[in-house]
Amino acid sequence: MSVPKIELAGVTKAFSGKVVLAGVDLTVMPGESMVIIGGSGTGKSVTMKCILGLLRPDAGSIRIDGQEVSGLKGRALAAHQARFGMLFQGGALFDSLPVWRNVSFALSGPARERRAAALDNLARVGLGPEVADLKPSELSGGMQKRVALARAIAPRPEIIFFDEPTTGLDPIMADVINALIRQLVSELGITALTITHDMASVRRIADRVAMLYQGRIIWQGERNAIDSAENPFVDQFVHGRAEGPIQMQLRRL
Ligand SMILES: Nc1ncnc2c1ncn2[C@@H]1O[C@H](COP(=O)(O)OP(=O)(O)OP(=O)(O)O)[C@@H](O)[C@H]1O
User: Fold this and answer.
1) Which residue from 132, 154, 171, 219 has the fewest beta carbons nearer than 10 Å?
2) Ligand 1: distance of its center to the CA of 45 in Å?
3) Which ligand 1 atom sits nearest the alpha carbon of residue 46?
């Protein structure tokens, strides 16, 4: 069996005594698209930040290609982080830079080559050269998301993290972006880890789904298994019911 691309075992993290991750076990195989679902504040972002080395877990192991990465510092940490692409919730484009400079931000080399690479990546997300010299603020939300996606794939990262990739988009544009993500991840052979509340994203993007609840992965399975999962927590989340075993925390303690 091949070595997992990402492997978390017993990862714990607490902030000022408040336990957020209580022993997360998660395996993502190379080229696989894993989606983590779970309510607000269940620790999805904290899990991603621990994998990226932006937060240090209190205990447990995080392996990439079988190599332990928790506790990396300095250059080793920078090299680790360079293996990842990120699509942030808001797109996080630099508004002072034209689109092509945003897309080629992480690339090196002469400007002419970086611009050519930017145009190539824009084409992959369905945008023509006419947008290359526009500022992000001149584009619609859906187009900005495409630009952010082009920027995330431009360095051909081994792993991409998608953080709520459809936030702020209407359902049709969200579907277009979800389909693009699925297509690019497959075409480029990138391992993808997505966190989302959006079940439409899950159905479009995921090979496998993991549900985080109270600091642990309480269920994982193939995308098609979510509807028949005999797990009341998954069932409640997938169907968005107020009634069920998941207790919403209405105020921060
Ligand atoms: N740096 C930090 N210091 C203190 N508490 C933190 C820190 N980062 C996260 N937390 C807490 O950890 C908990 C989990 O946060 P996290 O952002 O991972 O949730 P999430 O599942 O991604 O939620 P959402 O879906 O709303 O983005 C929250 O209660 C949050 O306040």
Assistant:
1) 171
2) 6
3) 18
- Locate the domains of the chain by residue range: 1-83+159-253, 91-156
Residue 252 has pLDDT above 80, yes or no: no
For the stretch 119-168, pLDDT in tens is 999 998 888 999 999 999 999 888 898 899 899 889 889 999 999 888 88
Q: What is the pLDDT of residues 78-91, one digit of tens each?
A: 999 989 988 877 66
Res. 184 pLDDT band, cuts 50 70 90? confident
CB distance 50 to ligand 1 below 6 Å = no
In this structure, the residue with its CA closest to atom 2 of ligand 1 is 15
Whole-prediction pTM value?
A: 0.89
Question: Mean of the per-residue pLDDT values for the chain?
Answer: 88
In CATH, which of 3.30.200.20, 2.40.30.30, 3.40.50.300, 3.40.50.1470 is domain 1-83+159-253? Answer: 3.40.50.300
CA–centroid distance, residue 147 to ligand 1 (Å): 27
ipTM (interface pTM) = 0.96
